[in-house]
Amino acid sequence: MKKSNKRVVIVDDNATNLKLMGYLVTQVTGRTPDSFSCPIEAHKALIKNDYDLLLIDQHMPNITGLELLNKLILEGKLPKVVALVTAVKEPLLQSALRRYGITEVIQKPFDIHKFRNFVQLALSTR
Fold first, then answer.
1. How confident is the model over 95-112, as pLDDT tens digits?
2. Residues near 22 by beta carbon (within 8 Å), at least 6 away in sequence
């Protein structure tokens, strides 16, 4: 597998989801993504580094995925592609897609093949 030069960051407070998404991203890119269970620590990394893809959970302690995206927009640090990963279907999410720069909403539990395909497509078109 050729190693990608694209940078991916994953933010999810659930350790199992974080490991699974990290494993799948590594399969696609050949690189280990930066992974954070704490959105506050993820925010610090997102400010310091440029990422091509952000996979972010909506429901986390202290700050939601949308709140973190809003901070990144205000700071001019939103990655090129953003996928919101959530277990709950919310009407709010559909209206937030454009406002928060969300490219895709990935519903948990997600299909592994579709997830890998999304990551591959998201990184190949940017």
1. 777 788 888 888 889 999
2. 10, 32, 33, 35
